[in-house]
């Protein structure tokens, strides 16, 4: 049992460290190939904190563990709103930009509802996965056009900013010439991420067996919180620095990426049905929690400490309800 927990924790560490190295190397490569800072931020850096969820869900799907794959996606979205946004609001009330609420939070809510409905009626196969990824590309294209036209990149930009604030090496990027070093950094990070995902999925399956609980419960809680650590760190740092608007955008952007990007990639690479437990309870709860989050944000355009406390208490109640 102890060995299994070490395997699980080791997987978390490799995912986080590998994801950071992968993003750092990819950003340096993109800069030296002449990509604009806006496109780099909205794509490479924006995907950076979602890399643990991506690798874990895809590997779980390929290993025949859809409970962990989709539990990780839905559980990460629940943790992002209830635990991470709640904790950030307790540290510093989150100020909400109208553009982020009107466009990005509404898109997050619509995507959550669409996923919950699709999970009831159709398997998460390659057509659905392709559609999700196309929608993500279309959303990013729309956001890039909005930024260039009106200077408004919204939640995805804030997700990128949150990571840059937490990682000094990304905030002050190197201008040294040459591609060899960043390529090696990116490849090394990719290797660590793949190894970490494998360790995490293996450890999670073993823990589910040892504790006598379903893989879905493990995916919704332990795995989801572990893979959401980058979002937790970046949002808390943003809150401590009194950048509550960045914390809000980080959560909303991450939830959009989780469903369209991670859900789409998982369905495309490892088609499967969403487990019945998630379809019946957790996916509808994700929609409800997303709605509550949007309503909290819309009242006074801020999420205060009291509302943050309600969100965190909701996450504690959710975990208590899931575990036998």
TrEMBL record:
Membrane topology classification: Multi-pass membrane protein
GO molecular function: calcium channel activity; calcium, potassium:sodium antiporter activity
Keyword field: Membrane, Transmembrane, Transmembrane helix
Pfam families: Na_Ca_ex
Stored InterPro entries: K/Na/Ca-exchanger, NaCa_Exmemb, NCX_ion-bd_dom_sf
Coiled-coil features, chain-numbered ranges: none
GO cellular component labels: plasma membrane
Transmembrane segments: 78-97, 104-122, 128-144, 179-205, 217-240, 247-271, 283-301
Annotated compartments: Membrane
GO BP, sorted A to Z: intracellular calcium ion homeostasis
Residue span, Sodium/calcium exchanger membrane region domain: 5-144, 183-322
PANTHER family in the cross-refs: INNER MEMBRANE PROTEIN YRBG, SODIUM/POTASSIUM/CALCIUM EXCHANGER
Protein name: Calcium/sodium antiporter
Organism: Pelagovum pacificum
